[in-house]
Amino acid sequence: MGILLQAADTATQLAATAAPAIEKISLWELLAKGGWLMYPLYLLLIVALFIFFERLIAIRKASKIDSSFMPIIRDNILSGNIKGAETLARNTNNPVSRMISKGLKRIGKPIDVIEKSMESVGRQEMYNMERNLNILSLIAGIAPMFGFLGTIIGMVQLFYEINSSGNFELSTIAGGIYVKMITSATGLIIGLIAFIFHNYLSTQVDKTANKMEIAATEFIDILQEPTK
């Protein structure tokens, strides 16, 4: 009985010794295995990050509107101090002030003419805020496609090598497949990041556009109030 137990322990030790150690790999080493198509994906990520932060700063700057701006404009208009209102609007740098400035220059003309001129400025300001957001949308669409292309190219190369060498070992095939899937995973992650960036910035633009609409409506209402 003791001999059998000793033999079992020896067999267990031999099996543990023979079992291959699991190879650990860092994230950067894993990404490096993705091949040359990882570089276009890196470039798309850099472009997405640059556009996001550049637009975020610009949109936040555009959305900062002093709460006292419209009350001061109203007081100046009702008191007949149009020049003072124009000076305030001209010296304030945001989409609302530029739209109001255009409306002030049209005072004396029919209301519909004033509204159209302000709408024209509003559309231009919206275009300025939305500039380059379409690139984020494009990256969200093409990054996964780039990743999938890298996987397809890698799989073709893998099966060509297997066919040429005749090596059909499961470890070789599995190892090759997981390496080729790296580009697909990276492309999907970059596409998701760009999609989130685009939707977040679009929401901020919509909030600023709502402020512009409120200010324009308030301005038209002021023009229809009796002057002091």
From TrEMBL:
Pfam families named in the record: MotA_ExbB
Organism: Haoranjiania flava
Keywords: Cell membrane, Membrane, Protein transport, Transmembrane, Transmembrane helix, Transport
Recorded family membership: Belongs to the exbB/tolQ family.
UniProt protein name: MotA/TolQ/ExbB proton channel family protein
Transmembrane parts of this sequence: 36-53, 133-160, 172-197
Subcellular location, record wording: Cell membrane; Membrane
GO terms classed as biological process: protein import
